[in-house]
Amino acid sequence: MKLYIKKSIVLFCCFISYLAYAQNSISPITINLPANPPANTAEWATTLPPVMILAQTKLVNGQINASVLESKILVTIKSGSTKICGSYTRHTAPNSNFSSTTKNWTGANVLSLLGQECILKPGSYELCVQFYGMNAAQGGLLGESCKPFTIAEKGKQTYSPPTNVSPVNEKSFAVKDLNAPITFRWTPVVPKPKDAVVYKLMVWPVEKGQNSAQARKINTPIVYEEVKNNTQVIKKITFPPNSKNYTWNVEASKTNQMGEVEMLGVSEATTFKVADNKVDIQIDSLKFGCCENGNQSIYIKVKNNRPTPVNIVAIKYRHNGTGALTTLGSITPSLPKNIAGNATQIFTSNVDCIIGANSIKILVDAVDAIDTDNTETESAYDTLKCSCNLCDTNIVKWTLPQEIAYNLSLTNNVAALTGPIKFGPYPIVKLSTEIVDFYWYTEGDCKKCNNNDFYFGNFTGGNLTGVIGGTSVAGPNGTPIPTSHQLDFISSTTVGSNLNGNINLFISVPPQTQLSCCTDCFRFCIRYTATFMQNGVCKTCSIVKCYESKRVHKKVGLQQFLNQCGESGIIVGELDSQFKK
After folding, report:
1. pLDDT of residue 18
2. I want to staple 542 with a disulfide (CB 3.0 to 4.6 A). Which of 69, 268, 378, 529 is the partner?
């Protein structure tokens, strides 16, 4: 049931949108009549100026819409809602033959669209023109307009009706202009009557899907103002919140000596609109890249949804919706950047890798290119496909004694491991080295009787050249003992120091058998842990590196870098990289 309702709503909305488009596909429609048309419509073709109908349409994808091409034109004369003259209906009306974007009917051509000649009694009328599309049977109105006129009594003074002057036809008011009164002005009737002339100003909202003629017939005026012998009204209007288009006209009348109200004429209605001049941008697309070399790329595509330019003045971001709001720098193109009406602009930048962020919120600040008080901030989220870990090797950089570069020597059952060591980009307050695995293997039954691993696989000492400072060996109660698995190097400053030097680590190894036929080997793994401050928070990053070597009998000497200790497939290198708070 829910699915059915949803589909019905979508179809209904599409139908309403179609009607709104259809009813405005032929617009504007202009009707010209002589100031005082004869009562006999047959004479309209020879009056000066002659009766004329001018209609326009727009191209759709470079072509005239099929409904417009096959449309019918219905011309009638009405008094109120009653048809007075015109032999056609919307079903029998002649084809409009709309072959170009502008179509014109003049004089006798207009009269032929009426389909009959009529003699009109004195009174007020409207000449109405309507266009119907292919689905006329379903009410496919494509456009409509009516022109009021008056037939005067014989021998009675005739008058030219008032003409709307201001606001000019199709004027667009900015939203901020509506805070001030609007001036409505028109021309007086001609000639000037001896009696006082009452001018009645009326303003109607034009709802979506309506034309101005329909609005004047159906809708309630939002302005109804009468003035005597005055051709101007200045009025502050409370506009309906959902209406943007309006139509207005002026009726002129006088009261004769008999106390009767005589209509002198009605101005041709004109329109104005309240432009939706609010800044209207949208973020079409947004993408944050993965951490690479300590940076994340940013791609933002911004669209200006209105026809007038806007300036993008700032782009900001925050992570996980709660982080501090940060202004994006190093933007290409640089800000402020103007975006033309209905155009798009791509912005790119880079930021330092945002550690621990799962999503990023972008905020784009836009300002009207002319009215700087008219602003908008548009936001959008991007869920990161590759969240940044502080200890990822593309953020922090380790340089450690390597398998192909380390120097391992054996003296008095002590292995000396030496090599360069670096960590960045953060200054560290402590470097910890910890033996997390020690493995001893011999060929055959060649082990010494002393198999107590308490005495080997431990740090016996070490030092670090560079700026980081002193050493300590961890043991029970902090007492340095020769059987400790951990050795710490502590910075001499509380803010930390850059680790860039050489390390010497001394590790106890098993004593070698005196048998000349025995070969043994050992492997040990060291966890290096850097402790540092990041944005005032103490953090650590660790990495494990393993080393191994084969020791042959004493007569042959030490062999290194063979990595063949009786176990095939041993891979020596980085085993673990982890982040800890």
Report:
1. 40
2. 529
Distance CA 276, CA 260 (A): 45
Cis omega (within 30 of 0) for bond into 241: no
345: tokens are: 């602009």
The pLDDT assigned to 323 comes to 66
Q: Which residues are 201's β-sheet partners?
A: 225, 250
User: How far is CA 267 from its chain centroid?
Assistant: 45
Contact 282, 336 (CB under 8 A): no
Q: In this predicted structure, what is the pLDDT of residue 2?
A: 40
Q: What's the pLDDT score for residue 437?
A: 85
pLDDT attached to residue 152: 79
**Which three-class secondary structure state does DSSP give residue 78?**
strand
Euclidean distance between CA atoms 160 and 264, whole angstroms: 8
pLDDT at 280 (0 to 100): 84
Measured at the CA of 458, the angle between CA 454 and CA 459, to 5 degrees, comes to: 145
Q: What one-character-per-residue DSSP string does 90-133 give?
A: TTTPPB----SSEEEEETHHHHHHH-S--BPPSEEEEEEEEEE-
Structure confidence at residue 65 (pLDDT): 86
Q: What is the pLDDT of residue 321?
A: 60
Q: What is the CA radius of gyration of the chain?
A: 45
| Spatial separation of the C-alpha atoms in residues 214 and 217, rounded to whole Å | 5
| Residue type at 80 in one-letter notation | G
Instruction: List Cβ neighbours of 433 (8 Å cut-off, separation of 6 or more).
Output: 459, 462, 486, 487, 488, 489, 503, 505, 526, 527, 528, 529
Residue given tokens 């209207």 in the structure block: 280
CB 11 within 8 A of CB 4: no
Instruction: Note the pLDDT of residue 15.
Output: 37
Angstrom distance (rounded) from CA 106 to CA 110: 6
548 Cβ contact partners less than 8 Å away, ≥ 6 residues apart: 439, 521, 522, 523, 524, 563, 565, 570, 572
User: What are the residues whose beta carbons fall under 8 Å from the beta carbon of 60, sequence distance 6 or more?
Assistant: none
Of the candidates 380, 390, 357, 369, the residue with the CA atom closest to the CA atom of residue 299: 380
Take residue 125 and report the two structure tokens written for it.
Answer: 């009328």
Strands in 26-32's sheet, in edge-to-edge order, are 26-32, 52-57, 102-106
Structure tokens belonging to residue 481: 């003992």
User: Token pair of 186, please?
Assistant: 């028109």
With a cut of 50, list the residues of the chain below it in pLDDT: 1-21, 136-138, 404-406, 470, 475-478, 480, 555-581
How far separated are the first and last CA of the chain, in Å rounded? 52
Among 330, 363, 365, smallest CA distance to 349 is for 330
Measured between alpha carbons, how far is 16 from 6 in angstroms, rounded to an integer? 15
CA distance 120 to 40: 6
Q: For residue 21, what pLDDT is reported?
A: 44
Three-class secondary structure of residue 313 per DSSP? strand
Position 176 scores a pLDDT of 67
Write down the pTM of the prediction.
Answer: 0.42
CA–CA gap between residue 326 and residue 318 (Å, rounded): 6
